């Protein structure tokens, strides 16, 4: 099956629910390590601060992808919120990066009411540890959580 068809399947059942918590994963174009530079990674951090449609609960910027745990605002659209973050990041990196920044689409997981949001946040921010990028999160600066 072609990639386009698979990406379409990811979007087929997507529904935006106000106040719902979502875990978003977006991947850099061709898995390039665009965010291995601290400055490039901060472009995404600044972008999500400007997305009015979402309240950021936590995030981690990995070298070739991001994880973003957010709560969707009232009457907001999930796809539009993610697209705005990706667009703002792309605009910020235009001077330092030539070529596409993001792969098309994104993966989302809507957390069920019984799922532990803080456990998801711990999972998200522990990504650099599991990837072997650092031995302690104190040595990785491209993450944050509202609980800290």
From TrEMBL:
Database matches in Gene3D superfamilies: Transposase IS200-like
Protein name: Transposase
Residue ranges of domain Transposase IS200-like in the record: 17-127
InterPro entries recorded: RAYT_transposase, Transposase_17, Transposase_17_sf
Lineage: Bacteria, Pseudomonadati, Pseudomonadota, Gammaproteobacteria, Cellvibrionales
Parts forming coiled coils: none
């Amino acid at each position: 099956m072609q990639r386009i068809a698979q990406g379409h399947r990811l979007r087929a059942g997507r529904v935006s629910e106000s106040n719902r918590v979502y875990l978003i994963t977006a991947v850099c174009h061709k898995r390039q390590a665009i965010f291995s530079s601290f400055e490039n990674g901060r472009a995404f951090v600044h972008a999500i601060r400007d997305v009015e449609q979402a309240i950021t609960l936590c995030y981690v910027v990995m070298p070739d992808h991001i994880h973003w745990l957010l709560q969707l605002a009232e009457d907001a659209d999930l796809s539009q919120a993610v697209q705005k973050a990706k667009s703002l990041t792309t605009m910020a990196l235009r001077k330092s990066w030539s070529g596409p920044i993001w792969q098309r689409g994104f993966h989302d997981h809507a957390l069920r009411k019984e799922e532990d949001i803080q456990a998801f946040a711990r999972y998200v921010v522990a990504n650099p540890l599991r990837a072997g990028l650092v031995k302690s999160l104190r040595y990785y600066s491209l993450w944050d959580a509202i609980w800290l």
